[in-house]
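It is worth pausing here to work through a concrete case rather than discussing structure prediction in the abstract. The textbook approach is simple: state the sequence, then state the predicted structure, then interpret. We follow exactly that order.
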Amino acid sequence: MIARIEHDAAMPLNRTDLADFSYFLAIARHRNFRLAGLELGITASALSHALKGLEGRLGVRLVNRTNRSVTLTSAGEELRSVIAQPFDMIETAAEALNRFRDAPAGRIRLNVIGDAAELLLAPVMPLFLERYPDMEIDIVASDRMVDIVGEGFDAGIRHGGTVPEDMIAQRLSQDLHWCVAAAPAYLERYGTPERPEDLREHRCLGFRLGDDRVYHWEFAGPDGDMAIAVPNRITVRGGRAMMPLAVAGAGLMYGNEAIFQPYLQRGELRLVLEDWSCMGPGYHIYYSSRRQVPAGLRLLIELIREVKPLGY
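Step two, the predicted structure:
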């Protein structure tokens, strides 16, 4: 089987072969047709059709597909090992050409924690697109921790303390102020907590982290730092999903003060336990140390630092 691939690979290649090889490598990276299609900007069905064409021309099966998994055959593993490095070199060379363009071109895929998409990216996107009209940005806002390399992202944005250790990270904001807020109607009905320990007698909105743990609210006081497992009859993943509940008076909410600001200004929320609020690591962008940083990503980082939507 491998001999057949080597024989066919020695034959002249056409444009379709080269395109389909790149499609095959995306499938090999993701082991998922949908995710590979997202990276390439084509549908999963088009990707499947291209793979079948490549397998037909080579005369071997490269991928085993079931309803639950996508795996490479022995022939597929062999082909991947042979062509992956040359395609990486081509990608690096193509990216390097951006230095000679009047304006960079290309597509950046970002996996971003929900609050950062609103607080950090939204303020700079209009200016970025105006300065670099040939750039495209694909933003996936999710609190779920993902393998950004395995799922085809150029970079991720998370709080500094949660960035994977094997990544290169750069700060994008100053440290963040964490506090508790509630609707006036809630405080009128249930009272205002005076100390963090009082939260055990209140209704609190639980926050589920990207690794599926329920967050323990953190405070800083005269006796040192503390983390409290608050009672929560409602648990939410994502601050934006939680905000309407807090405004409606469903319970106390813990979060980054920056996301509360519009609601505080309109009187829809009030801060409580302000003497116990604490600081935490700011937002960081991170990316693989094994790949060249795309020019567009580098320019986006520079622009965020220039605009400083959350300080720097």
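Step three, interpretation. DSSP finds eleven helices and 15 strands in the chain. Residues 1-11 have pLDDT under 50 and may be disordered.
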